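Record pair follows.
FIRST:
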Amino acid sequence: MGESKRRKEVLGEDYGKSEPLIPWIPFWTKKKAEQFVTLSTKAAWIGIFVMAGLWVTIRFIGPALGWWQLID
């Protein structure tokens, strides 16, 4: 008998329902964990693009517009 069949027999009606990934944090289910990963990945990409935009502004746009001068 496979593990999933044993689990289904043990859990009965609760089989297939989302259970907490971390027992002491009851609201932290698999779905919440996936949502957190999705959100943090989007935030990381936004941060990367903002940092790249700031670098381009500081390195190229600012000096070209005469806002400041780079020291070599």
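SECOND:
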Amino acid sequence: MTNAVQNLGFPQPPGFWYDGAWRSGDQITLDITDPGLLYGATLFSTLRMYDGLDDPRTAWRAHRSRLSQSLKSFDWVMPDWARVELGVQQVAAGYPVVRVTLFPDGREWIMGRALPQDLIQRQQQGITAWVMDQAVGARSLPQHKTGNYLTPWFGLQNAQAQGAQETILVDAQGNWRETCTGSLWGWSDGIWYTPTLQSGILPGITRDRLIQGFRCHNKKVLECAWDQRLIGRFTIVAYSNCVVEVVPIRTILRKSETLKYQFQSDVLQELFAALVSGHSQMS
């Protein structure tokens, strides 16, 4: 496992970056007709800062590329990327996690936050996840990371009410797609599985790097739909994203049953090793 560089100095005073300038405090002013406010019409990407934007673990080029592709798909205004990068660097002076939000007219809003305080514990001991009801189990425009994140937010609120830390989103047939914040991984009989992009999931940056890392280690990984038959074969389940890297899921709550999985094994370490290799392959 890798650790983010902890920057202790904040820009003066603490705040955020918006529309080309550093802003103090924790309040932002938007027009009441702004589509970002009314409809969640924004795009965002969240990155974990390591040793600057050029560090392959930060994966800034991948984040920028994904945002650019979505902007082109929506025919939105491309931002001033030099200004965006300046804002990211300003925010990263005080926070290890940076969220870049882009508006349809090219404005940028960049804010930071801390890593989860119990991240190491989660990586070592695993978490509990809750399977969301299929009637509300899909993100809006799932192949893009838009600001309309009501389904994941709603799912996390319900998961926490169940004593869980993550939610698994499903499709109309009950197939598992992804978690509210990351990509799913399952292991069975020497093979790693992850839901296919055709399942209607986000093309995760860490997901891509893990796949590359597995190939580098000559490990078999299959992208496919996660139906109930396949799910029943898994002995290890985990999820990944750019902030937490890889976290095992030791318990899954599903309707009236509780599923248990291994969370301490040599096989699980293959995920962490694949991520390291994936970073080097994509640098």
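COMMENT: The radius of gyration is 19 Å.
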